[in-house]
Amino acid sequence: MQTEARRERAPGSRVGLVTAHLAETLRTVTPAGAAAQVLDCGGGSGAYAVALAATGADVTVVDISADALATLRRRADEAGVSASVHAVAGDVEALAELVGDRRFDAVLAHGILDAVDRVGDTFAAMAALVRPGGLLSVLVANPVAAVIARALAGEPVAALADLRRLDAVADTTADHAGPAAVVALGERAGLTVASRRGIGVFSDLVPGSAGDTARGREAVAALDAEAAGRSPFAELAGRIHIVLRRPSA
């Protein structure tokens, strides 16, 4: 498991790309000499929590799955950061009851908005826990990438149907978790977009055989890293990483 965890957090991996960017951004909003206080909503088995804790952050993870939290604790112990990772069992749709009046330097919503019933309410609850000057980090599926994936898989009929549904996905008034909706929800919560990056631009497209050699894996990782913030490639990524910031008081 240690080898798998290290590979998952490697600099060119998806977790590595998100974590490196977030850690760099956190340094600009965290008081000097203090550990960044991070809340990971639905953080599951701790891929992001452990990686951020390794950079010096203090991370609280809320997840409803006891099995996932057990994996989180084991990973944190193996990485030597168990003192900086705190597991809280509970539903992210009841955050206020779980964390009380605490406010955080960063709140993570990495994939959780795709899994909740009330996206707008859950987003608002998470945004409310971001302190003035703090960050809300959101990772959501990119509907544009889904169209491309269908076409490349030889499913043109399904690709066409997905393409025609993009207008509905772009509707910022709907209760869903598309990138446009995330930006709109952020504006309603008083947050502004600090950065927007594509995660997995090329790793979702290249044949699996490209990763059979170390050189191939390194090249794909480099492609993903360099394309993450470069248009138009970033707009084609499988997932979109949006970091929003609450203005300082």
Structural account:
- By secondary structure, the chain is of the alpha/beta class.
- It has a single domain (2-142, 170-245), classed as Rossmann fold.
- The protein has helices at residues 2-8, 14-27, 47-53, 66-79, 95-99, 119-127, 143-152, 156-164, 166-169, 179-188, 214-227, and strands at 37-41, 58-63, 85-89, 104-110, 130-141, 192-199, 239-245.
- A seven-stranded mixed sheet has the order 3-2-1-4-5-7-6, with helices on both faces.
- Strand 2 (58-63), helix 4 (66-79) and strand 3 (85-89) form a beta-alpha-beta unit.
- Helix 2 packs across helix 3 and helix 7 packs antiparallel against helix 8.
- The chain starts with a helix and ends with a strand.
- The model is unreliable at 1-7 (pLDDT under 50).
Provide key terms for this protein.
249 residues, alpha/beta, Rossmann fold, seven-stranded mixed sheet, 7 strands, globular, disordered N terminus
Short description:
The chain is of the alpha/beta class. It has 11 helices and 7 strands.
| CATH H-tier superfamily | Vaccinia Virus protein VP39
Largest sheet: 7 strands, mixed
Task: Report the portion of residues in β strands.
Answer: 15-25%
The tally of strands reads 7
Query: What characteristic shape results from the CA principal axes?
Result: globular
CATH class: Alpha Beta
Portion in helices: 40-55%
- The number of distinct helices, counting runs of at least 4 residues, comes to 11
Structural class from helices and strands? alpha/beta
Based on the coordinates given, report the CATH architecture. Answer: 3-Layer(aba) Sandwich
